[in-house]
Structure to design on (106 residues):
């Protein structure tokens, strides 16, 4: 089983990471962590570095080996590409809400 965790340092993404760790411990497999930098957003490199360090610390504490990939681009595109390239079985991410405009086709 391959699990992809979308991580951004938020509390909910840390919960997703811990859920992925739990699944890997129960069923074995590979845990892959993806941190996507949206090109249109302001990027504070110190914050990103701290987020990645936090994820590494969580993984090390649980004795889980995982690569953390830092990608730049549209998050949906980067996630889709990662899923296809790595043959991901499960995606875990923080909850994100979208306001849909049904008058304009969704």
């Amino acid at each position: 089983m391959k699990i992809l965790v979308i991580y951004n340092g938020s509390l909910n993404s840390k919960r997703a990471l811990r859920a992925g760790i739990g699944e890997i411990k129960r069923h074995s497999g590979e845990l892959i962590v993806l941190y996507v930098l949206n090109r249109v957003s302001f990027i504070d490199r110190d914050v990103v570095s701290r987020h990645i360090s936090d994820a590494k610390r969580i993984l090390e504490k649980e004795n889980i080996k995982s690569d953390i990939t830092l990608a730049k681009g549209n998050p949906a595109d980067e996630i889709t590409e990662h899923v296809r390239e790595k043959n991901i079985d499960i995606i875990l991410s923080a909850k994100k809400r979208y306001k849909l405009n049904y008058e304009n086709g969704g």
User: Anything to note?
Assistant: Residues 11-27 form the longest helix (17 residues). The chain is about 45% helix and 20% strand. Strands lie at 2-6, 30-37, 67-72, 90-92. The longest strand covers residues 30-37.
